[in-house]
Design brief:
Largest sheet: none
Number of helices: 7
Number of domains: 1
CATH architecture: Up-down Bundle
Strand content: under 5%
Shape: elongated
CATH class: Mainly Alpha
C-alpha cells in the first residue's frame, strides 16, 4: 500500500512537471490566441442557447456574448496571427502566412456578422420573432460559395441568420487554416 501511494506521488509529480514544461514551450502569442478562441467558443455556445431556448433570452447578456466575439474578430484576430502562426502548441496551419488575404477576409466577415447580431438584439422578456430566421433566409452556401450578382445585404439578415453565417465563417476558417487533430 505504501509503495503504491509513493508511486502515485512520484507519477503525479512527474506528470505535473511535464505539464509545466509543456506549458512553458507554448509561446505567449499562441496562449493569447487560444484564450481568445476559447472565449469566442463559450460566447457562441451561449448565443446558441439563447436561440435554442436552453437559456432565457436577455438582450444585455446576448449583446455581452456577441461583444466577446466581435472584439476578438476582424483586425484583432488578424493581428493575433501577424508574427507567429505555426508554433509549438498551436493548431494554426502555415497557410495563414501564405494566404493572409483569405484569412483576413474571414476574420472581417466574422466581425461583420457579430456586429449584425449585436445591432439586431432587441429588448424584451422573450426573444422577439424579428430576431428569428425567416423562411426567405435560406443558407446561401457560406463565405466562399459562388455569389450571385452582388454581395449579400447583411443588414437585412435576422439575428439568427447572421449567427448561422458567423458559425459558417468559423467553420470555413478552421477548415482552411487549422490543423485537424485526431
Amino acid at each position: 500500500m505504501k509503495t503504491s501511494g509513493f508511486a502515485f506521488l512520484v507519477f503525479t509529480a512527474l506528470t505535473g512537471a511535464a505539464l509545466v514544461v509543456a506549458a512553458e514551450t507554448v509561446s505567449p502569442a499562441v496562449r493569447a490566441r487560444q484564450a481568445d478562441m476559447k472565449e469566442i467558443s463559450a460566447a457562441a455556445k451561449a448565443i446558441s442557447e439563447f436561440f435554442s431556448g436552453k437559456r432565457p433570452y436577455q438582450a444585455s447578456e446576448f449583446r455581452r456574448n456577441v461583444d466577446v466575439i466581435s472584439i476578438r474578430a476582424g483586425e484583432h484576430l488578424v493581428a493575433r496571427f501577424a508574427t507567429t502562426t505555426s508554433a509549438a502548441g498551436s493548431d494554426a496551419k502555415p497557410e495563414i502566412e501564405t494566404d493572409r488575404d483569405k484569412f483576413a477576409e474571414l476574420a472581417r466577415q466574422m466581425e461583420v456578422y457579430a456586429n449584425r447580431l449585436r445591432d439586431s438584439a432587441e429588448e424584451g422578456g422573450a426573444m422577439p420573432q424579428s430576431m428569428r430566421m425567416k423562411a426567405s433566409e435560406a443558407i446561401d452556401g457560406g463565405p466562399f460559395a459562388k455569389r450571385k450578382d452582388k454581395a449579400p445585404d447583411v443588414d437585412a439578415y435576422s439575428s439568427e441568420h447572421a449567427f448561422h453565417m458567423m458559425l459558417q465563417t468559423c467553420t470555413s476558417c478552421h477548415a482552411a487554416f487549422r490543423i485537424k487533430r485526431k
